[in-house]
Amino acid sequence: MGLSDNSVALWDLTSSAVVARVTSSERCLLYSMRMWGNSLKVLRVASGTIFNEIIVWKLIPESPPSSPAILMEHPCRNTSSCAITQIDGRNYVAFHLNRLIGHEGSIFRMAWSSDGTKLMSVSDDRSARIWISAGQEQEFDNFKEFSSDLILFGHNARIWDCYMSHSVVITAGEDCTCRAWGMNGNLLMIFKEHIGRGIWRCLYDPDSSLLVSAGFDSTIKVYQLYSSSSMETREQGGLIDDLKDQREIFEICAPKLTKQLGLMDSKSEYVRCIRFTRENILFVATNNGYLYHAELSNPGNVKWTELIQVSEAQIICIDILSRNFSEFSLDAEEIVAIGDGNGKVTVVSLTNGDHAPKVSLSFSWSAEMERQLLGVHWCRSLGSSYIFTSDPRGMLKLWKINKDSLQSNSQNTTRGPSAFLLAVFASSFRHRIICIDALSKEEILICGDKRGNITLFPLSEELMVANHEDVMKNITSLDHFKGAHGISSVTSIYIARSYFNHVEIQTTGADGCICYFKYDKIHHKVEFLGMKQVKEISMIQSVFSSSNSEDMVLGNYAVGFTSVDFIMWDLTNETKTIKIPCGGWRRPYSFHFGAVPEHQNCFAYLKDHIIHVHRLWVVAGEKLFPKVLHMQYHGREIHSLCFISLGLISKISKGCHSWIATGCEDGSVRLARYSPTEMGGWSESILLGEHVGGSAVRSICFIPKIYTFGSQIHNTSNGCAYHTSANSNEDQLLLLSVGSKQVLTSWVLRNSTAENRDSKYLSDPSKFQFSSVSFQWLSTHMPQKFANSRRKVAKPIKLSEEGSCSEKTSTESDQISRLMSSECRKDKHDCTFVDQIDNDWRYLAVTAFLLKHVNSRFTVCFIVVACSDATVMLRALLLPYRLWFDVALLVPTKSPILSLQHIVVTDSAQIGNAYFLISGSTDGSITFWDLTEAVGFFMHQVLDVQPQMFIDCQRRPQTGRGSQGGRRWRSLANLSSEKRSRNSEGINNVTNLNDCENGFETSSTSENDQTIYPLGIKLNLASELHEIQPLHVLNSVHQSGINCLHVSKMECRGPKSERAYCVISGGDDQSLHLLGFSLQVELTDQGCERSKPTCRNHIEDATCYHPSGSSFVRECSDCTADKDNKLDILFQNRISSAHSSAVKGAWTDGTWAFSTGLDQRIRCWKIDDSCGIRECASVIVSVPEPEALDAIICDSERNRYQIAVAGRGMQMVEFIASSVEDSSNL
């Protein structure tokens, strides 16, 4: 072991003790040291000193077998000043071999060659030097001097690490580049995949040709240098040739175009379409109706074959069905459908010939009028018997090809139509259809048009089996979604998953987004699920997966274009893998990818009538690794984490995966997978998305269950209620994240019980389990942005007592209308100005629960967020309409709240629910709130008002580049009064928002986002909220801020244990506090008439405004806690010095408790029958500055737990409770 004082210590591993220590005569501090040799006899040490020198020395016996001449020849080799150490009965000293001078900066890293004849060093001076010895030196007498024969320059910053093999040299530096050099000093390759402050380490394995780098961005990335599998016979110069010849770039020209490369006229021939079918097969169609087949195996000798000429008409569009989808002939390689300018469709079937492909059959028919045929589409799921054609007016025709025509072996293009029209699908948008997909089993056809709309049509089995004698049918749409991609084209569409009662759809568009939709097969409705914006791609052409991907449906690669470049983007790693300048997407182009897209990809585009081909196609017998195989986690501090618990206790106990969601300072939310059976445990990390503007994520929470409102509730073993109706498959479980700039983002869980279209999952269910947990962005709530930097706020006034009484006697609609109307108040009050600049309020904590109303399709997610301005807000997200509402304000809060937890109490009689909130604040107090009345009133109000009838909910969030979506402020009371006024006027049919623009105004919230508000809310955006007073307050529980708290149901311990709970909290005072309480709840039937919010008899300062971030809230009513709901404190226990530093995370299930703090320790506590708490085990974790902790039960007996700790990194710890007392271990 080399030490920093330029000494070497020898350890006996059997006894774990130091046997000897040899110190060099050069007593100085070292920046680096590297040793070579497998025994003391050949051991050599290279020491990089603080004087920018390298000292090479070795261990020799006290009387070395060397001549005095050699010693005199090297005066620096003085052994008299060296400490003599005895090893195995012999005395050893440090003997200096050479002093290497040349670097002008600190030497950070060194590397020996495998034979010890070369030494490489990297330095602060941005250079790398290779020191070469004249010969191999095994004995001291044969020593040869080192000389600096090679200096490598190229890095733009300090070089941190290096590696040297017999044929390649690797360097990694602070400029985030990893460079491969030849032994002659030539730069071979540059890898720049890391971001941040540099690459710390690099490793290279010559046997597998894998280069691994680890950087400041907390990523590990893998690159494959070789493209050949023959590693054993590779010579030293083979790597250089191989790296240069990986990608082929060449140009080709169609046969009849070679003589027309000059000026062209209207009769000149030019290329209209190009299509790849394989890496060496390219089809080329021209304006004169020629279809060519190009064989590209040898770029220097391209073999062209003229297949057919389509009646001298201009070819408009082509589509090719490859042999993998061919059903009618085993000999057919490709089936080409051609659409020309005369409106005819020609189908050509090709087979392999001896030297060139042959046309086995071809036939054509008239599908449209002249110049009206714009697209021909094969549907892979329907096979070769059906083909679609599209025109400019949004009409889509389905043609069925006769089986006799498909089985014909003679070429006859004049024998008449060989296909007949089955149906015509008419889009209500009347825009050209760009892409289609169909699923005959589900009997649906989905189309995307040029203006970003998608339309669904029925595709019945009766229609598919019809013959030419049946009458053609006109099919109307089942449903449509306007503006799925704004006004940009839908470039691809795919039916991703099929469920029992709905189908999930994935689309890509020219707006740079991937959108996800759900089609309800029962109600025949299309709903927006979520979206993902892809960095650096302005138009996404398609999404696909590699053959070894675990999620074939979602895809892990997106291909598309920027303004001038073709891009392939790795969706898993969020990196760019291919960038080819091509001039944009408006030119004819084609691409094709293999099993591993980074190593197998082809792209061709047309420029100046010449086809430019970029091809990288590595064929290897061994497994090909993607260029970037990194397990990326967060690059900065993780502030919050939570387990994604989906009832996986039985699966976890069997060694299945655990999923953990994390939120980071860099604004990203990631989903990590922990596999106990795999090396290292962490096997995957998926980036879900980033908060708007990269705002830091401070807290996250997952909602694992849905409660019912107004119907029966089923209880689980731990007393929690969930909804088990027939439509439970439609339930959407959410992940919520909050953080800086008051950003609240919701993510929806993808259902893990889908019937995937890919049979691969049916044959191997384990692979489907790997990809079953995934989230999609759903909606984002943000403070309103104003056009100017100042906002008018009404000054507070006082209402007279008579005014309050008269308000109570008014009708409900008038009362709500007066309370909620902002426009009518603006002229009655003087105005003051409040600055909106430098608003740096942030959300500190969040908790939420889901309620599903059984008498309606909607589900409400109630979210409680605590802001740094000492306000706590109860908000609601109405699903599936993605509408945000402010429900209530929790007052008073004297100090900011750092942690939140909620409790949903259910009754054994299944009458209803009660909802409570627990908060811990910076002053060390714990507060209990009763949310039951406010939640119940809002649920009834939503059911009564039905805001989705007044708002166009079938709308994708209007997002621009770099934004995760807008939001809509809505006032249920305003909508309620408007609904009543409409009904009083006899208006029964309410149109959507687009049809009643006179009642709404728009306010620009950002450059690319506009939110539509009801009339009268535009100038004062704050909704009028109920106030909720605390149910119970415990002051000075901690001496300082409460960083964490967790609540759990307690085991049966007394007469009040039916609704007994315990809360564990930790704070900056290094203490843990265990609190037990019981709730006495009088549950009422949720289906009965709602109770109105109570108004105080004496309202003092009724219009007082309280700040809530960037908005202001009016105190209009007081939703006090139900007097029938009471809280009793059962016990309180405190451990003053639970940790030696601030406690940052705590968790309990009522039996065991776990905590962590800045002392980097996890401590396990046992809650005994007398409600006492004692420490049972502890462990030191490797995560610096832990900030969050969460745990999950791994077995039903509560004897095994998984504990996750996060801070500057993340670590998983397993806890096993032994049957022997006090023998539990971590």
Automatic annotation (TrEMBL):
It comes from the Eukaryota. The keyword Cytoplasm applies. It is found in: Cytoplasm. Keywords: Cytoplasm, Repeat, tRNA processing, WD repeat. SMART domains: WD40. Belongs to the WD repeat WDR6 family. This is WD repeat-containing protein 6.
